[in-house]
Amino acid sequence: MKIAYLCILIAVLLPYVWVTIAKASGKRYDNRDPRGWLGKQTDAKALRANAAQLNAFEALPGFIAAVFMAQFAQVNVMHITLCAVAFIVFRILHGVFYIGNKHQLRSLVWFGGLICVLILMGSAIVKIV
């Protein structure tokens, strides 16, 4: 479970990677009003990096719940680990493709991450029933 827990930590930190890129991509960053500053950006890369940040935060609850559901249901640890690692790979690629404006690839890897979450939740449900 150590690797799956490490994946949760990585997933928690990922949005901060994308927002750092957003802040570095736009005009001079204003820390007095970070949300307002991000909202005023016109640089496409900064806007996409901010959107990647928001999407990464949105993906967190489902992933964390899925890992804990699978652990609680005593799903095979290797199964949990593989799904968690795959989720992280998909989420990293999602941010890279989002920032790089590769919308079709971004959508594909977003779906891959969702499938990982659904597999973990489904495995927990099947194991308990």
Automatic annotation (TrEMBL):
One Pfam entry name: MAPEG
Ranges that cross the membrane: 77-100, 107-126
Major localization listed first in the record, in broad terms: membrane
Compartment list: Membrane
Keywords from the UniProt entry: Membrane, Transmembrane, Transmembrane helix
InterPro entries hit by this protein: MAPEG-like_dom_sf, Membr-assoc_MAPEG
Protein's UniProt keywords contain rRNA-binding: no
PANTHER family: BLR7753 PROTEIN (PTHR35371:SF1), INNER MEMBRANE PROTEIN (PTHR35371)
Name of the protein: MAPEG family protein
